[in-house]
Design goal:
511 residues, alpha/beta, 3 domains, 6-stranded mixed beta sheet, 19 helices, binds adenosine-5'-triphosphate, binds magnesium ion, ATP hydrolysis activity, ATP-binding, ATP binding, nucleotide-binding
Length: 511
């Protein structure tokens, strides 16, 4: 027990502390004199807008980045020596972006980079045993020999966590682990984290979802523009107060009223679509209409939209795009793009962005033809175009000359969305459009999606964020086991009706 009476919510001794950390990238200060201390058995929330410095601070704790100033201590001893030293000290980080190798199996991924020095194992069978134990510990059953690339995003997320748990950490850092999860999976994860904390683990938990913070955290630290705003026991604050601290101003969480829409002709039509995990789907999206796809992660929504637009192989069925009275079949992704289909994929980091290219280049890439005059791209025109889009999605900092890879996770998502919005597409397919995006940017992206629909674009949205799905969609198809389990619109569409249709098949990935 500790003598510190001011934080009864966190009874254990301090395991890890960072003092006066400063980290600069070029001229910009990503983390500006931040201190944080986390106790054993505590779940410590870390919140802040996109680009606030959360991931950077956590990379410093995990030894991936070296601070320019300040010190990290574990059990009072300074931590130096990079990731290996951090791992040996028992610090495990679950990254914001999935970091597994798709070509390797679950077992191989869990043990990837595991050092026999710490675990005391060397042979393959023992390593497998460790992987199996870690999965059991978090209560998730995944085939150890399945290639990770074939797992649903939710299962991959759980494998990432198993990977961290297999290292027997004393400090577990999770950077937005629920961004890819449905409410049921999130619920499962949060309960699991509470159990791990009860066992004495110190947990640092990053999320943009305020209710999660209030549900599981003992204390919460707020960062803004790289600076420490404060650390507060969760019982001493409120969601509104926390959001105020994050954005530094009074912020009204605007609950949008559903749009009045008068959809036009059918633009995107799918008939009898079959593919991996998709078992026969018919669906239409009209001009000016926003069609939402709800359901659990793993229900086949991503597989469905990818098969529809030719990004993955379709085993049966026909998909057409109709524009200017002409109907064309979509046989490949190229033909989809040619016929005015834009696609904002789920895994933006791998599918959506060229990280070593500038923001301007990334935004210009799919819009080359429009921006070129006589086959020549004019730099000033590209800049003006890219800047306008970057501003409209609220990119921070709004510097389009910087490499996309230098932006925070949420800001990278805004760049991908910006580049497709610029095309003024006939059809836009968005998979989890605001995952990992902060509250302000989210409202902004919703506004942009509505604007596109109002201009006549046919919009198809996959979202696991129920309020988002309900707020955006004119019609919601709930997908379960690769089929449409039900279709909802108007007042009958609410959280309960979507969830009950979605949950008919039970939860994915839970033991
Ligand atoms: N490798 C890098 N090079 C240059 N700048 C970087 C680099 N990594 C981060 N930054 C900058 O540091 C700042 C903090 O980024 P960080 O990723 O820590 O934010 P975050 O709070 O995790 O945001 P998000 O919620 O979007 O994930 C941002 O302005 C970002 O652009
Ligand atoms: Mg981050």
């Amino acid at each position: 027990m500790t003598a510190d009476q001011t934080t009864p919510e966190a009874p254990g001794p301090v395991v890890i502390e960072a003092e006066s950390i400063v980290k600069r990238f070029g001229g910009a200060t990503a983390v500006d004199d931040v201190s944080i201390a986390v106790r054993s058995g505590e779940i410590h929330g870390l919140v802040g807008e996109n680009g606030a410095g959360k991931s950077t601070l956590m990379r410093i704790l995990a030894g991936i980045l070296t601070p320019d100033q300040g010190e990290v201590r574990v059990d009072g001893r300074p931590l130096t020596g990079g990731t290996r030293a951090a791992l040996d000290a028992g610090i495990a980080l679950v990254h914001q972006e999935l970091s597994l190798v798709p070509e390797l199996t679950t077992a191989e991924n869990i043990m990837l980079g595991a050092f026999p020095t710490r675990l005391g194992f060397t042979n393959a069978r023992q390593l497998r045993g460790v992987a199996a134990t870690a999965l059991r510990e978090i209560g998730v059953s995944v085939d150890l020999d399945e290639r990770v690339g074939r797992l649903s995003v939710a299962l991959r997320q759980f494998v990432e966590i198993a990977r961290a748990v297999a290292r027997k950490p004393r400090v577990l850092i999770l950077d937005e682990p629920t961004a890819t999860l449905t409410p049921a999976e999130t619920d499962y994860l949060l309960t699991m984290l509470q159990r791990l904390a009860e066992g004495g683990l110190a947990i640092i938990y990053i999320s943009h979802r305020i209710p999660e913070i209030f549900r599981i955290c003992d204390r919460v630290t707020v960062l803004r523009d790289g600076q420490l705003i404060g650390t507060t026991p969760i019982r001493a604050t409120t969601p509104a107060a926390l959001v105020d601290q994050m954005v530094g101003r009074e912020y009204k969480l605007d609950l949008q009223i559903r749009r009045e829409s008068t959809p036009g002709e059918v633009v995107l039509a799918a008939r009898g679509v079959r593919a991996h995990r998709v078992h026969g789907v018919d669906l239409d999206v009209r001009a000016g209409e926003i069609v939402g796809l709800g359901g659990l992660v793993g229900a086949g929504r991503t597989e469905l939209v990818r098969a529809m637009i030719g990004a993955d192989i379709r085993t049966a069925g026909r998909v057409t795009v109709t524009a200017h009275g002409r109907t064309r079949s979509i046989s490949s992704y190229q033909s989809a793009v040619r016929n005015g289909v834009a696609y904002v994929p789920e895994e933006r980091r791998t599918d959506g962005l060229a990280l070593t290219m500038s923001v301007a280049e990334n935004i210009a890439l799919p819009n080359r033809r429009r921006l070129a005059t006589g086959g020549v791209l004019r730099r000033s025109r590209v800049s003006a175009f890219a800047q306008r889009l970057a501003d409209s999605v609220g990119l921070r900092p709004p510097d389009i000359r910087k490499d996309a890879g230098d932006y925070s996770g949420g800001n990278q998502q805004k760049i991908v969305i910006a580049k497709w919005l610029g095309r003024n597409p006939k059809v836009i397919v968005l998979d989890e459009p605001t995952r990992g995006v902060d509250v302000g940017a989210k409202a902004e992206i919703h506004r942009l999606i509505r604007e596109l629909a109002d201009q006549g674009t046919a919009v198809l949205v996959v979202s696991s964020d129920l309020p988002e799905l309900l707020e955006l969609s004119d019609v919601i198809h709930v997908i379960r086991d690769g089929r449409i389990a039900g279709t909802l619109s108007g007042p009958e569409a609410d959280e309960r009706s979507v969830m009950s249709l979605a949950a008919g098949g039970g939860m994915v990935g839970k033991a």
